[in-house]
């Protein structure tokens, strides 16, 4: 059985580890358009900010491929997959046959058609090489100011990295608040207070209208509302779309907003699996299929795909959004829903929260009936995983609802039989 | 592999496990020095929870399907090939707290002293019996062989 993996990040590595757990010998090839040994994509903001050097980028030890008997083809783009022939085609004319294929091509940053977006000094920021390019540009042109477009997760990490380099940052966000997918309005306001305190200029409900160059390089930008923003560079951080360019429309692989996969991470074409940011997988809280571009799920999906590719059946029970992100050193965690949905029956939802204006600390839980479906922690994240576990298990919280936000909430607050259920999986009881 | 078995019926809430865990993970491994002279003081990786007459000590369960390992963005959280223990390579950890977000036991703490890093039970690697077990006066913590599938 010949396994081929397109991609070299969390989902791909998860796949290798899932495969090799059960299949020690079948050949595995990893193909990636990036030339690097597997690295941690989230670390690019630490790298650009100068918090770590390049030696800290590795996601797995240097001998990972050798130890797992993986052949690599790095710096090579896969242009097309042909499930009928079980072949993939490579840029430059080569091809490779497979028995089982994993598509783990991740996301592609979205850049809207803005005049001036092709100028020098305009970047996206999702790859190691882009961190290098931005750093080089800052040094070469002694850039002192930047416009960041989009204040989501990538935008925030871009802002932090640029601040660490002493760059004056202006950020524009089309929504009425920053980080609107992971924060409710209260948490977003807190984050905005922190960013403004660090000197960030924030513009919401607007975006860039045009980027104006001088001598082929970014000189300034004009926002849609007419405001002029002086900036030496521009970073688009609007978000990523599933990177599915290698899948032709007639391939038999169904693509909606991402590659559609079943519970075994199989696509609709025989022998082809997919995992990570390029797929549309099951969201257990929303009870629907959509892209959930987060690291832990990418690894998990890849691992499950690998297990199934090795011939051992394992199902994906679904995921839900979760993010742990610091806002200029203030820790935050957001899991599941951040607000009761508009379209649902409002009577089914209940919100518990606790806000301390003095310390900028905020906790919020969202209940749907007797289940926890959302948890948000700002500036106090200790033991947040217990809540994530309650969401994952869809545990009935009726018995301990009143303790959920108390300072002493812990495993001790849970009913004994649930505590027991929690810990018996690994062979230990309490 | 051997696991720490938690028996809440026997726990008297004395917190000796926390103290000896901190000592074991201090630089000197001496109780007086660890608490009086070393700064920052080493963190205990076991946590006693107490409410009324009920108490128990809880540390990392070294899960077979460890959510912290899959969530770790830098590969610092890993399984020790020899012992099967889930360990955090604190030199590689960057303190993103993804592990804190996913651990259903709340068994991973943030160590904010020095370079921020996740702090968790390492089964006192190398020691025959982990310090918390060795110093539990009432066998509320025991170190026992656990077979796959959950049976003791």
Summarize the model shown:
Chain A is an alpha/beta fold. Chain A is built from 9 helices and 26 strands.
Characterise this structure.
The complex is a heterodimer of chains A (430) and B (152). Chain A is an alpha/beta fold and 430 residues long. Chain A folds into three domains: 3-108 and 242-309, FAD/NAD(P)-binding domain (3-Layer(bba) Sandwich), CATH 3.50.50; 122-238, FAD/NAD(P)-binding domain; 329-424, FAD/NAD-linked reductase, C-terminal dimerisation domain (Enolase-like, domain 1). Chain A is built from nine helices and 26 strands. Chain A has helices spanning 10-22, 44-48, 64-67, 128-141, 153-164, 185-197, 295-309, 384-393, 416-424; strands at residues 3-6, 28-32, 70-74, 78-82, 87-90, 95-97, 100-103, 107-109, 122-124, 145-149, 168-173, 201-204, 208-214, 217-223, 228-230, 233-236, 240-242, 259-260, 272-274, 279-283, 288-290, 322-327, 330-336, 349-356, 361-368, 371-378. A five-stranded parallel sheet of chain A has the order 3-2-1-7-19. Chain A has a five-stranded parallel sheet with strand order 9-16-10-11-12, covered by helices on one side. A five-stranded antiparallel sheet of chain A has the order 22-23-26-25-24, sandwiched between helices. In chain A, helix 1 (10-22) links the parallel strand 1 and strand 2 (28-32). In chain A, helix 1 runs parallel beside helix 7 (295-309). Chain A is globular. Chain A starts with a strand and ends in a 6-residue tail after the last helix. The model of chain A has no long low-confidence stretch (mean pLDDT 95). With 152 residues, chain B is an alpha+beta fold. Chain B folds into two domains: 1-59 and 131-152, no CATH class; 62-120, Alpha-Beta Plaits (2-Layer Sandwich). Helix content of chain B is 19%, strand content 21%. In chain B, strands 1-8 form a two-stranded antiparallel sheet. In chain B, strand 4 (77-79) and strand 5 (86-88) form a beta hairpin. Chain B is globular. The mean pLDDT of chain B is 92. Classes of the chains: A alpha/beta (430), B alpha+beta (152). Chains A and B meet through helix 7, strand 22, strand 23, helix 8 and helix 9 of A and strand 1, strand 2, strand 3, helix 3 and helix 4 of B.
